[in-house]
Amino acid sequence: MKRLSNLQLRLLTAVVGLPLIVLLVFAGGWWFAIALGVVSLLAAAEFVHGWLFPSMGISAVMPQATTFGAVAVLVIGVESDWRFILVGLGFAALFAAVGYSRTNRLGPRKPWRVLSWLMLYIGLPLALTVLLRDADSGREWVFLGILATFAVDTGAYATGKLVGRHKLAPAISPGKTWEGAIGGYAAGVAAVFLLNAVFDTGVSAWVIAPAAVVLPLAAQAGDLLESWMKRRMGVKDASGLLPGHGGFLDRLDSLLAVMPLLYLYLRLRVF
Amino acid sequence: MKFRQTPERPAAEAANEARAVTASPAEHLGDLISPISGGRVPRHVAVIMDGNGRWATQRGLPRAAGHRAGTENIRRVIERFADHGVQYLTLYAFSTENWNRPQHEVRMLIRLLRFFLRREVDNLHKNGIQLHLLGHVETLPEWLQRQIQDAIALTSGNDRMVLNICFSYGGRDDILLAVQKLVREEVPATEITEEAISNALYTGGMPDPDLLIRTAGDQRISNFLLWQAAYAELYFTDTYWPDFGREDIDMALSDYARRKRKFGGLLPEDIEALRGS
After folding, report:
1. Does residue A269 share a domain with residue A143?
2. What are chain B's domains?
3. What is the pLDDT of residues A24-44, one digit of tens each?
4. How far apart are CA B228 and CA B189, in angstroms?
5. Helix H or strand E segment including B131
6. Where are the beta strands (DSSP E) in A139-206?
7. Going by C-beta distance under 8 Å and a sequence separation of 6 or more, which residues neighbour residue B137?
8. Under 8 Å CB-to-CB from B32, ≥6 apart: which residues?
């Protein structure tokens, strides 16, 4: 049997993954919260198991997902639906039970520093994404965040391929060019305005404008941040969990910056 | 200043009882006096809270944002009316016809009621306000009904002001239910009096509204308190509900204080004037 090429793998993963994402965003509620809880666990596992301590068993990274649980409880408990508090508590209890007995194996690398960074970098953004989905027109807003990020990536890829000359950050991510970054940014801005109109969110172009200006920048910054962290750890892909795409963190990098900012902006200005 | 009871209250009480029985108009002019403005204030104010959606659209925000802003405004309004010494405040939140709105808007209005109850009940209780819900509470989800019952039970002993929230309320429906109730109780036709119907309404035992305010420019009664508002003074303002604040309340009340209420009869000075001519 011929082995699949990287591009074929990439497409295959997308064919399976995209409908699943669409379905989960559509469903919302419990389904979305639980799915993001699982994603936060896997992403945290990639971070600790794949980058920091490659030799360590997967069970040693379980406590990381307390991240999602604890943050979800804190953030969601304040205002949202009691059901989400239950989800958060469930995750916290589950992962704490499985994981904390082995926390000491994180050894000399200061586990609490790692844990708190994970909480900030993975748990908080994903918990805020659950809140975003739970807000008025949450389905539309989550899709807007995902699709706008997709537009930034695609715009950057296309522009970079066509006219890319000047390297953006060769030390961190050798493939990126200034031209690509500008193209991606423009595509992202246009996408936010367009999607806001198409989804009929009731928010005027003036009100959404600050988000349209900032979110594509955040997407690119999130991308670079993840690349920089990987570079520091000396790994290329976060993991092989998503064949052809690398790991969850490689797909989430931009969203981890975009979703919480989108939520906070809407919270401030609209909700 | 904490204001509980004006000295005029017993007189007004008596006047009101008299009116309930005989509908004698002039008696009622012994209204309450506002400790803030020193003017006459109505015992019972009813408000049609309109314009949340338009308020939001004007700002480029979704309608939901307007409903939220409107809900937040309720607290300010309650406090101002209570400070003026108004004893009954009835707010029209959701009509029986509002169920026909798009499903997501209905869901959101129900969510806002839950939000309001959860956030405001302690505050109401602290301020001595007694909460009632008028309308088809039984059509609401069960957990919300329980929340409502708890809130009503908690505040039932308070006497500074009565707050009626009309949710899934319709004026005709109110009258219809009252008549059905009387018929079910096999009250003979001769005993179905105005008083009997009044007492069988959701507002049974409460005085009729003296002042009915509608915000946001429209001048309609929209199936609100049809029976009870028979002699209410009507007050319309263009201000959208989320912006309807202290000054607007003070203006409405001072407008009310200038009006001559006749209840279909004549005022003593009018009679004097007629005699003189």
Report:
1. yes
2. 33-276 (3.40.1180.10)
3. 999 988 788 888 888 887 787
4. 21
5. strand B129-134
6. none
7. B145, B148, B167, B168
8. B6, B8, B9, B12, B40, B41, B42, B43, B85, B86, B87
A29-45 helix and A82-99 helix, angle to the nearest 10 degrees:
30
Q: Is A187 within 8 Å of A139 (Cβ atoms)?
A: no
Residues A231 and A246 in one domain: yes
CA angle (A255, A257, A260) in 5-degree steps = 95
Residues A93 and A219 occupy one common structural domain: no
**End residue of a domain, out of A134, A161, A180:** A134
Residue A145 DSSP class: H
Domain total of chain A: 2
Q: How far apart are CA A30 and CA A36, in angstroms?
A: 10
Complex confidence, ipTM: 0.72
Q: Domain containing A109: what range? A: 1-134
How confident is the model over A156-173, as pLDDT tens digits? 999 999 998 889 888 888
Query: Each residue of A1-14: pLDDT tens digit?
Result: 456 777 788 888 88
Are A58 and A146 in a shared domain? no
Tokens 């391929």 map to which residue?
Answer: A161
Which residues make Cβ contacts (< 8 Å) with residue B149, sequence separation at least 6? none
Is the pTM of the predicted complex or chain greater than 0.80?
Answer: no
CB-nearest to B60 from A137, A206, A271 is A206
- Candidates B55, B59, B67, B108: best to mutate against A (most CBs of A within 10 A) is B59
Instruction: Based on the fold, state whether residues A107 and A171 are members of the same structural domain.
Output: no
Residues on A contacting B at a C-beta cutoff of 8 Å = 136-137, 201-207, 269-271
Tokens matching residue B8: 């005029």
Q: Is B144 on the interface with A (CB under 8 A)?
A: no
Tell me the two tokens of residue B155.
């505040």
- The Cα B150–Cα A168 span in angstroms is 61
Residue with tokens 């699943």: A20
Please indicate, yes or no, whether residues A130 and A9 belong to a single structural domain of this protein.
Answer: yes
Structure tokens at B198: 């009044």
Dist. CA B74–CA B72, nearest whole Å: 5
A122 within 8 A of A47, measured Cβ to Cβ: yes
How far is the alpha carbon of A80 from chain B, nearest alpha carbon, in Å? 10
Nearest neighbour of A207 by CB, restricted to B61, B68, B104: B61
List the structure tokens of B29.
């002019």
* pLDDT given for residue B255 in this prediction: 95
Residues A18 and A106 in one domain: yes
Supply the DSSP symbol for A56: S
